[in-house]
Every structure is written in C-alpha cells, then in structure tokens.
Amino acid sequence: MDVIEYRNALGKLTPLSFTWTDGTKFEIDEVLDVCRAASLKVGGFGQRYKVRISNDEKEIYNKIRYMYLEEGEPIERWFIEAK
To answer: Looking at the 3D structure of the chain, how many domains does it have?
Structure first.
C-alpha cells in the first residue's frame, strides 16, 4: 500500500491519501484520532490513525478506517485494517 503523508517541521505526521493494492486511490478527508495501539484484526503495533476516507470513482464516502504506522528497523510500514 502506498501512502502520501505530510510531516511538519516538528515531526508530526499526517496521512493524506493511500493507494490500495488494486490501484484504487483513497483520499483521507480527516484524521479523527491518533494513538498508539495494536491491530486486533491483522496483528502489528504502532501509531493508529482513525481516518475518514472517500473515493469518487467507487462512490465511497465518509467511511471510517484504522490506518497503522508500524515502526520498525530499518523501515516504517503502513497498513490498514480492511473489512
């Protein structure tokens, strides 16, 4: 999964959009909450972003999903809980 993110001068990270493995792009309309948490559905641990997403192509609006930034060495990895 590819994620476009913004990181400010203080290091605060905000995800802006992501592209699913099938090539579908989703815009993140709003980050509703950020906390450290484990994914109970797929495993993994890291920063959890509760986000509202939309996608004009498939007419998906106002869906709430959890995105995770798993902090590991040597890289960070994004993943999302899918239904």
So the answer is: 1
